[in-house]
Amino acid sequence: MINHRSEEFEQILKTVLGNLRTIFGTAENVFILGGSGRTSVEASLINALSPGDKVLVGLNGNFGDMMATICKDMGFLVEPVGRDWNGPIDPADVEAALSRDPSIKTVAVVHNESSTGIVNDIKALAEVAHRHGAIIVVDGVSSVGGMPVNVDEWEIDICATGSQKCLMSPPGLGIVAVRQAAWKRIESSKSYRHYMDFRRLKELADRPMPQTPGTTPVSMVRCLDAACRMIMDEGIENGYQRHVRMARAARLGAKALGFSLSPIGQTSPTLITLAIDDSPAFLDGVMKEYALHLGRGLGKLSKSTFRIGIMGAAANEGPVLETLSLMGQYMAQHGFGVPADAGVEAAREALGI
Ligand SMILES: Cc1ncc(COP(=O)(O)O)c(C=O)c1O
Questions:
Q1: Which residue in 142, 193, 253, 279 has a CA-CA distance of 20 to 30 Å to 286?
Q2: pTM, rounded to two decimals
Q3: Which atom, in ligand 1's list, is nearest to the CA of 111?
Q4: How many angstroms separate the CA atoms of 9 and 148, rounded?
Q5: Using an 8 Å Cβ cutoff, are 40 and 89 in contact?
Q6: At what angle do helices 218-234 and 236-256 cross, to 10 degrees?
């Protein structure tokens, strides 16, 4: 273990922050916090808002609901938009809400809804928010690193993610990108904050040799450093294309196994959502018998769907084919009436292998 205040570690941190800036598509600040994805989402919201402020929250999945809950817990007044989980947040609805109530000065939205698989058009939503003098806070937990996120080009004011998804590192770090336009708000926020105070994080990150407040989770940052280098070595665009190819193959494989893909939420390149009558029973069975870990359905989709993450290192032929193979074997054994290799065959065909 090296000391978090050593020159060696500060150099690592400097390199990681530089690579993260490239991954987020920003020339501005990126901060690393000890915590998880929701730490970075919570940190983003408390720095952007003050108790009593109104915030328009996009609700088209479990993680939009989570943003709304965080906001309520922090004393912010939530105005919902798109509450039916039936498609992307419509920029026209955001426009209408902001026009109706000009006192709403923050829009909070999830980029890639990991529960429904819906992808929201952040560029369009940011444009609308800015036209109304609002800032946009984006949860990019399941998108950053696995699909295009262009913080500067899309003018995202604050974008949050975690280490463990498309950044293919162990869980343990929250990461945020913050653009200049958000600083007035951050400076004036009356939310209680200490460790998560972006002003302190900025002061330390902007030093010639950057630091973080307190004892940095050194081993996690080193893992993230290695992962970022892998992302850079592959080429970010190549990585995005790999996610698209693998998600398409997984969808076709799942379809061949007889799963229905709901008409919404099939655009995500980092996860697929599948429908099944009793998903808890299916997952309990397949996880127990084949030690295969699949994502349970979330929120109001908890009984009717399950999810396969196609993120980072999992977005490769091996994990995708193995997952379809084990699901197929379980299904063939348990009377689902499909050949065990139907999913693998379809996925192979899609991948041309
Ligand atoms: C879109 C999204 N936001 C937030 C979170 C919460 O992240 P964490 O579990 O790391 O706190 C998740 C986790 O799956 C997520 O997918």
A1: 142
A2: 0.97
A3: 1
A4: 29
A5: no
A6: 90
